[in-house]
Amino acid sequence: MGSPVMRDVELMVDCGGKASRIYDYIRSNTAHRVTMTDVYNMISRIKKGGSQLSDEDQVAELLVNFNMSAEGNVSTVNENARGQTAVVSISSELMRKHYSRFPELLLVDCTHKTNRNRYQLCTLMVMDQFGNGQPVQHSVIERNADWHMVKVLEHFQAVNEWERTQVVMVDKDLNEVEVLKRMLPHCRILLCHFHVIKWLKKAVRDDKKYGTYPSEVLKQIDFCVHNMVYSKTESELNDNAQELKTLTLRNEREELWSYFDKNWMACQE
């Protein structure tokens, strides 16, 4: 396995990354057809070969080695008001080359509680000529708050010609959207269809907020939500929304439709 990829794997292990994510990373970035057993064995070897340094010292050593391994590698560490490590961002030389080649679309994906300290991994990606996502930055963040996302984007802007990005795709976290609008004012911000549908299907089943709907009605609501997300015209969207409104207002219940009308019907461009 190539040295740059191996260093990334070691970093993921040191950060407490899951075996499944390491497996996906190796399969996507090398020609090696590894199995999950291979990955578990590799993680075990890396852990056995590790030092007895504290977590903080291991991270510091790792970042120094990362910065020295290639001229284009850049890392940033931000501390919170208590002097604790809050954001660690890295961009390798290869990542920066990926961005320089495919800067138009930026994908933002945050995965929660990815290591033993319950930090989150925020990955910025671009889409290559084959339609595959390529990471251009990894940031380990204490929590997904505005200040942390600002630091993630400050690192991104410092090491890339970020003005070349035109569209940013985010998953379901609406907090990210507001920060992205401020930090990347010229970009169009889009929500991922998959995550929107997944989120809305979960929302309509929140019995405490919106009460319980019969299973057959929930299936019809799911169908309407899917059709609304994929509507091609405003007229088509309004027709699907009217059908959803009729379903959700049964038995004089208004809570669910009020939620949709206030939070989603205004999200049109």
Report what the structure shows:
By secondary structure, the protein is an alpha/beta fold. The chain folds into 3 domains: 1-50; 66-191, Nucleotidyltransferase, domain 5 (2-Layer Sandwich), CATH 3.30.420; 193-263, no CATH class. Helix content is 51%, strand content 17%. It has helices at 3-14, 19-29, 36-48, 55-69, 93-101, 146-159, 174-183, 193-203, 207-210, 215-229, 234-248, 255-263; strands at 74-79, 85-91, 105-111, 120-127, 133-141, 167-170, 188-191. Helix 8 (193-203) runs antiparallel to helix 10. The radius of gyration is 22 Å and the shape is elongated. The mean pLDDT is 86.
Our Rg estimate from Cα atoms comes to 22 Å
CATH third-level topology of the largest domain: Nucleotidyltransferase, domain 5
Helix amount, in percent?
A: 40-55%
Order of helices and strands: HHHHEEHEEEHEHEHHHHH
Offer a few descriptive terms:
single chain; 12 helices; elongated; Nucleotidyltransferase, domain 5; 269 residues; 3 domains; 51% helix; alpha/beta
Give the structure's gist in a few sentences.
The protein is an alpha/beta fold and 269 residues long.
